[in-house]
Specification:
Layout: H1 2-41, H2 55-67, H3 71-76, H4 83-92, H5 101-125, H6 130-176, H7 181-188, H8 195-208, H9 213-223, H10 227-242, H11 246-302, H12 307-311
Helix pairs in contact: 2-5, 4-5, 4-6, 5-6, 6-7, 6-11, 8-9, 9-10, 10-11
Length: about 300
């Protein structure tokens, strides 16, 4: 009987292992097939709808189902989160969690209530610092969505700034080869990932749907507050109105952005020098002096020419 039980356990874990292995092989072959289709048909199969969502994103989407009940209260209790500010943050962050302003406002109230109940529960159980958690956990729950969305917006703009010069150089080369702007954007964005790809993919979709080019440019401006990106889009609008060659606009913008990046690096290096000096003065130098003084004192006490030997 014991041998049969052991055999069944082994078969059970073997079956689990085989299922996991086959699922992994299926996922890998599916991704390879999608990449092949993307290369052959020039379609963008890795848009946000088909991207793998991390656990935090799935958790937030589940929480938003409960947050809708608190949306009215959240729009009234709008400390540090006015509706127009929230709409601006969601737009510039890419809204990867598919939040509306109402859901966002309800989410922070829902997390505040959850934080309060968790604090009360920890106080009943008697966990360490539970008397503080009943105050700080609701505050953390209220501000957590605000912090996450604002950090996402900031990170997204930094990624755009990072990829923009290379993107402009590639577009400029394609335009000089005789390809029109829409076709160049459609081809080049396939080799870029992140928010830059998302923005210009959406721009292409708007153009294909019949949106006026200047309106599509204005939509790009409204979704991004990156200085370099806004300068590029404004130059494109001005070049379109004045008839300036687009390839020249992209080339000049790429050169200007690289110069600006060099200046920013020099500025950061100049700011880092006083910080290094401060650390050296108040941390490294005192520790070095204490080590040397300690060695001297130990040598005076325990060395061959110590004070005790001289007194004897």
């Amino acid at each position: 009987m014991d041998a049969l039980i052991i055999l069944m356990i082994i078969l059970f874990w073997f079956t689990i292992w085989m299922a996991i292995r086959h699922y992994y092989v299926f996922s890998r072959e599916k991704r390879e097939l999608l990449e092949h289709i993307s290369d052959v048909t020039y379609t963008d199969v890795f848009e946000k709808k088909t991207k793998k969502k991390n656990r935090r994103g799935l958790l937030i989407q589940k929480l938003t189902k409960y947050a809708e009940d608190f949306s009215d209260l959240g729009q009234r209790v709008n400390f540090f989160s006015e509706n127009h500010d929230v709409e601006n943050w969601l737009r510039k962050s890419g809204n990867s969690y598919n939040l509306t302003v109402e859901r966002f406002q309800g989410l922070k109230i829902f997390l505040l209530i959850v934080g309060f109940f968790v604090g009360v529960l920890s106080l009943i159980i008697g966990l360490p610092f539970s008397q503080y958690s009943i105050i700080f956990l609701p505050i953390l729950g209220y501000f957590l969505p605000i912090i996450i969305v604002r950090n996402q917006a900031k990170k997204r703009q930094q990624l755009i700034r990072k990829d923009l010069p290379d993107f402009l150089d590639t577009i400029s080369t394609s335009l000089q080869a005789g390809i029109n702007l829409d076709q160049a954007l459609r081809e080049v964005i396939r080799f870029f990932d992140g928010p830059l790809r998302e923005e210009f993919s959406r721009f292409n979709y708007e153009i294909e749907l019949g949106v006026q080019r200047e309106t599509a440019y204005r939509n790009l401006l409204s979704r991004n507050d990156n200085t370099e990106f806004q300068s590029l889009i404004k130059s494109l609008i001005q070049g379109q109105n004045l008839g300036v060659p687009i390839a020249t606009t992209f080339k000049i913008q790429a050169e200007d952005m690289r110069k600006l990046r060099e200046e920013q690096v020099k500025e950061l290096a100049a700011k880092a020098s006083p910080k290094v000096t401060l650390v050296t003065t108040f941390i490294v130098a005192p520790v070095s002096i204490l080590m040397i003084a300690g060695l001297m004192i130990l040598n005076m006490i325990y060395g061959e020419n110590s004070i005790f030997n001289m007194l004897q």
